[in-house]
Amino acid sequence: MITHDMRAPLATIQGYVEMLMRKVPSSPGIDKYFKSMLYSSRRLRGMIDDILNTTKLQRGTMTLALDKVNASDLITRVKENHEPVATPKNIKMGTAPMAQNFEFFADPTLLERVITNLVGNSLKFTPSGGSITLGAEQDAEKVSIWVQDTGVGIPADKRDMIFEKYSQMEEHKTQGFGLGLAMCKMTVELHGGKIWVESEVGKGSKFIFTVSKKLTPDETKPAEAGAKGAGQA
Questions:
Q1: Which residues pair with 136 in a beta bridge?
Q2: How far apart are alpha carbons 230 and 223 in whole angstroms?
Q3: Model confidence band, residue 193 (pLDDT cutoffs 50, 70, 90)
Q4: Which of 104, 154, 177, 185 would disulfide-bridge 199, Cβ 3.0–4.6 Å?
Q5: Within 10 Å of residue 23's Cβ, how many Cβ atoms?
Q6: Residue pLDDT, tens place only, 22-36
Q7: Order of strands across the sheet with 92-95?
Q8: Residues 224 and 179: beta-carbon distance below 8 Å
């Protein structure tokens, strides 16, 4: 598959950018360009991963590589990864207060892709001067993670369809493949959770998803949820 072949040269580009960031003397201008290059290479890698992951989820061949996840560390990392893009757009990135020992079991790589896709989606629809806030909370049964923006909002008749494969808002049909939110839905379901959006046109959106706290490291969960298709609840 061509997506597999794209990974190697992309990894080389990303590796050289990271090496240059370590070796070239730091300055505000140079750092800005390097961070933008690194973000773009990571974004492209993420799009490739979304294609591969969506295929596995739909075929039922994806299993979770469960490990302990620190909610604060995960959310802070995603926020910092997007700041090189948010800052030039005058979009403020923030995180809600969270306990430092807030830990749970999940697939760290897949979960980071979910949050990354949600933040990337918010960046598309949040105008200059807006804000994006990430947060997490937990109860006895589940972990809830959310991404809230002050963007354009989503009409009520489109809030369910955006989680379908190849579905995109009309204004951004040229950006990406329309797989991000569909992959998010299938990944969340694989974690025993659900995903939804609360939104008001002209005021913004809040994407929320849950992860079951019943997952344990010795559990390998087949992708039965993804096999149903991204458009089903």
A1: 145
A2: 12
A3: very high
A4: 154
A5: 7
A6: 888 888 778 777 777
A7: 92-95, 131-138, 142-149, 204-212, 195-200
A8: no
Q: Which amino acid is at 40?
A: S
The owner of tokens 């609840």 is 233
DSSP string over 56-115 = HHHHT------EEEEHHHHHHHHHHHHHHHHTTTT-EEEE----TT-EEEE-HHHHHHHH
Does the pTM surpass 0.85? The reply is no
CA-based nearest residue to 105, from 222, 224, 220? 220
Contact 205, 197 (CB under 8 A): yes
Question: Checking DSSP bridges between strand 142-149 and strand 103-106, what pairing results, if any?
Answer: unpaired
Going from the C-alpha of 153 to that of each of 71, 105, 217, the distances in angstroms are 26, 32, 38
| Residue carrying structure tokens 């749970």 | 104
Helix (H) or strand (E) holding 143: strand 142-149
